[in-house]
Amino acid sequence: MLKYLALCGGLALSAAAMSAQAATFTAEFWDVVVAQPTQNAFGSFSDPFNFQADVLDVTETAPDLVFEVSLLDFPNSTLIPTADTIMTVGDFNPSGLREETARLNEFLGSESGSVDTDNNNPVFVAGSIFRFTGLVEVNEGLNTFAVGSDDGFQLSLGGVVQPDSATQPRGFGTTEIAYVSPMAGLTAFELIYYDAQVVGAGLFVTKDGELLTPAAVPLPASALLLLGGLLGAGLLARRRA
Length: 241
Description:
The protein contains 4 helices and 13 strands. By secondary structure, it is an alpha+beta fold. The protein folds into 2 domains: 1-20 and 219-241, no CATH class; 23-217, Jelly Rolls. The strands form 3 sheets. It has a 6-stranded antiparallel beta sheet with strand order 2-1-6-11-8-9, with no helix packed on it. Strand 4 and strand 5 form a beta hairpin. Helix 1 (2-19) runs antiparallel to helix 4 (221-240). The chain starts with a helix and ends with a helix. The relative contact order is 0.22.
């Protein structure tokens, strides 16, 4: 019977460990401009640009793709095909894709996985929207986030939209955001990023001077219930024996 209890406990702890290992950002992608746009075109984005209508309203619809990433530093240049597609855009993200050839899998690089693998139906970065969500570790007091982007972004921390977000189209630039947390621990992270024009694309996020990494997701209630259920079943079986 003790062997049975040990087995139950082992299964429950294994499930708990597996549930707590997911340290990624969930990425949602909207291909606003299906066809590859022309140079400097806004495609399906309005002119003048309207962040609410052109970006936020779109994120209320079902995304075209959902995948996971372990960092926010794009383009991840391992799949950039030729030198003439590269332009300098920032310190943490030194390679920016020229949009004429910028496919989604090139932008994501080693993070692309099985995304955009059909060469007959390529997905382009120009005229697209990304939303990255997850949990991040913050310190008590001041946390300095920096977002480098081309084009704009909206950052939310702890469910609060940060007012210094650069929501308008721009060439590559970096925006610092001071976030004061009342305590150390995990906080909800959401970054909405879009690329409106066929000029260049790039994105990175840092916290206190280091590339931002996602925190492991805490053990969900379902895993705790599984743990309690397995141990309870083992104890009941022992009593009946």
